[in-house]
Amino acid sequence: MTLRVVEWSTGTVGRHAIAGIDIRPDLELVGVWVSDPAKVGRDAGELAGLGRELGVIATNDRDALIALKPDCIVHTAMTDDRIFEAIEDLIFFLESGINVVSSGPVVLQFPHGILPADMIARIDDAGRSGNASLHVNGIDPGFANDVLPLSMTSLSQRIDEVRCLEIADYSTYYQPVVMSSIFGFGQPMDTTPMLFTPGVLSMAWGPVVRQIAAGLDLTLDEPLVERVDRVAADRDYSTVSVEIPEGTMAAVRFEVAGQVDGVDRVVLEHITRTHPDQCPQWPTPLQGDGSYRIVISGEPQMQVEFAHHGEHGDHNVSGMIVTAMRLVNSVAAVVDAEPGLVTALDLPQVWGRGLVAGRASVSTS
């Protein structure tokens, strides 16, 4: 059975999602939504950098795409700076009878204990009314700190702590809003960026902590614990998203910890540099410029280092690819899922069926 899919946005993640939809034999791209008027009327293959046309023309007409009655929307639009507006968009899709896999808002990866119960119920009600499901995922938050660590715990005899780390150089990560306004790179050290306002880390990455805890049948202390260590630039740095003058924020290490009786049991840790030479005292990737590391303390002690790198780009390019493909490869499972919001705890195993020796490729230029 071929599932009809609409791709919602063609940015740094969406362009790779188009390539992924095109390569899967069980998916058919039937529509593409764009926010930029300059992209309206252009072919999806051109927007994705495939070097060939797909015969699907981009539009900013939401109603026209809904009228196509696709089986699923792959939603990769920017949501970090419009969380509640984006949730309304997703509810509209569900009420319209369309399944959705989305890269955000990330709080919906596992919103229990974070969003108000009535808001979660509203999403579930929308799914039931439209007989449609919603799954929010990616790589981080996503596979690197839900499926991967939970799979590892199946090998444990005793678990003292599960720690999920992202260790990355963001100098080639092109997301100016995220880098400057949300993380605060290049901003004075006496400012408080959006991400480090108390409670925001627990909303953004708390869901992965709570989901792992739910998978392990843990009841966590409230609230989650946030720890932040920001470091100023020792010289001027330049990234693809933002300039970082000496003395402004250049690196950050943060944790979101779920505790039981005051003891850390599930920890999400991020070590984010804007140049690989920064903060050598912090953990560094075992290879390359970025990695995800899972450390499970207990019996036995276990550690996995997961790194990725683009065939035609660096780890920030491949980060967009793996985010897109976690969504695209989940489409069939989400279409088959029970209506409402579904998490990684609800879905069966998802794998890259049909992708060997595929034909799609995306230019990084």
- Walk across the major sheet and give the strand order: 3-2-1-4-5-6-15
Helix count? 11
Helix content: 25-40%
Q: Which geometry do the CA atoms define?
A: globular
Write down the Rg.
20 Å
How many beta strands in the DSSP annotation? 15
Write down the secondary-structure element order.
EHEHEHEHEHEHEHHHEEEEEEEHHE
**Are there runs of 5+ residues with pLDDT below 50, and where?**
none
User: How many structural domains are formed by the residues?
Assistant: 2
**Largest sheet descriptor:** 7 strands, parallel
Mean pLDDT: 94
Proportion in β-strands: 15-25%
Structural class: alpha/beta
Measure the end-to-end span.
Answer: 35 Å
Protein name: Dihydrodipicolinate reductase
InterPro entries: DAP_DH_C, NAD(P)-bd_dom_sf
Domain 2,4-diaminopentanoate dehydrogenase C-terminal: 145-349
Organism: Gordonia bronchialis (strain ATCC 25592 / DSM 43247 / BCRC 13721 / JCM 3198 / KCTC 3076 / NBRC 16047 / NCTC 10667)
Topology:
Layout: E1 3-8, H1 14-23, E2 27-33, H2 44-47, E3 58-59, H3 62-67, E4 72-75, H4 83-95, E5 99-102, H5 117-130, E6 133-136, H6 147-152, E7 158-169, H7 176-182, H8 200-204, H9 206-215, E8 225-232, E9 237-238, E10 243-244, E11 249-260, E12 263-273, E13 290-299, E14 302-306, H10 315-328, H11 331-336, E15 340-341
Parallel strand pairs: 1-2, 1-4, 2-3, 4-5, 5-6, 6-15, 7-12
Antiparallel strand pairs: 7-13, 8-11, 9-10, 11-12, 13-14
Helix pairs in contact: 1-10, 4-5
Organism: Gordonia bronchialis (strain ATCC 25592 / DSM 43247 / BCRC 13721 / JCM 3198 / KCTC 3076 / NBRC 16047 / NCTC 10667) (Rhodococcus bronchialis)
Protein name: Dihydrodipicolinate reductase
InterPro entries: DAP_DH_C, NAD(P)-bd_dom_sf
